[in-house]
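Table S2 (continued). Query chain:
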Amino acid sequence: MPSNETSLLFEAFFCEENLIRIFEERIREAKFIGLDGVNASSLESNIDDVVETAVAKIHAGSYRFTRYREKLIIKNHLKPPRQIAIPTLRDALVLRALCDYLTQFFDDCRMKPPHDVIKRLATAVSSAASGDCLLRMDVINFYPSIVHDLLLEQLRKRVTDNLALQLVRDAIATPTGFDEPEARTVGVPQGLSISNLLSMAYLQDFDFFCNLNYEYFRYVDDIVVLANKGKVAGIHACIEGYLSDRLQLKTHPLNEGGGKTLISTVATGTDYLGYRVRNTGLSIRDTSYRKMFRAIVGCLRTLRGTATLEQVLWKLNLIITGCRFENRSVGWVFFFRQSTDMAQFHRMDAFVAKQMGIHGLAHQTKRAKSFVKAYREIRYNRKATSYIPDFDNFTLANKIGVISLIRGTSEERLGRMEREELDEIYWSIVRGQVVKMERETVDFGANSGGY
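Corresponding output:
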């Protein structure tokens, strides 16, 4: 793209009108707050001045990002927490514009849904020869290990605007929390809107190399290669060397205790993105299965506290079916809809019935929804189903019902409230319940795109 065109493109993405649009569409309802303590309503009251100043600094090359607020995600006691970077809302505006701008040059680096990778891998494994093997590899601390100079070298192959490249450099050099040095030269903060795109761009040459030579599948830093048994060890050594020598990335040692990098037959299969992939089909891996068991037990246990029977049944059914929320389908059954092991879904229904009996609810089992039916509705009737709640299209009466159930406020009182206030309460409840449901049931982070 000629330099004058790239300059015009940069101006179009980093103009006051576009940043205002991003605020209206992406930031106005944001609940996160950066280290400056400014929330969305406070930013909105001063948005014109904030945007005007930001645009002026961006075009002068003097815009600087505020140190990111640190959020730690703990998976279990055996693993260190994952660090998430939360920007200020002002910076989130600029980062979203930067992400949209970079996408114009790296549209092929958009992160595809994990289901796409699983589907391709399952198809390949189902038709593999009996002597074929699966090599699974995992990069150690991928995002924190990305070298800035190597990343920017990749970006320069397509992006020529120095102001854009400077924004990227400043964004990834900005520290997270108070324990990091003032500027970093290694590591891309996780959770920013640009993080996934940058990670994909970093591995673009690696993808080209692997796709040219192997039957290869990758989601973020989880790599699987399907190959003949006699070749797979050599492939492992080649990939390990490429990542180390050219990208300064390390992979877990082969066949180490944790099983992050290993070789298995297609009959034995391998765990990948929440599934167990074999030549006989897809099933839900044991850890993902157990996570749902714990979520069901935890939900029913709240009966011992202040939760009412109706609240528990509502939350239990949300756990079972998932839902439509913010134009996407979410939940355990939706995530594992590609599984071909129906026995697992039948066992989940049996487990729900057993647990309800343990909690004295045997007479209420018919009010619990079914994993099997939810699976079939998602697979074969997703667009027309009414079995799975569509929170995006609830009527006013439905919304009042949800608020009344969860908050305990009478429907009569709610009926006297302004529609705007009701919507705010409703979305606060639904968003909180959906986030909790996904965190407790889906044993896989889908990288939504960040702040």
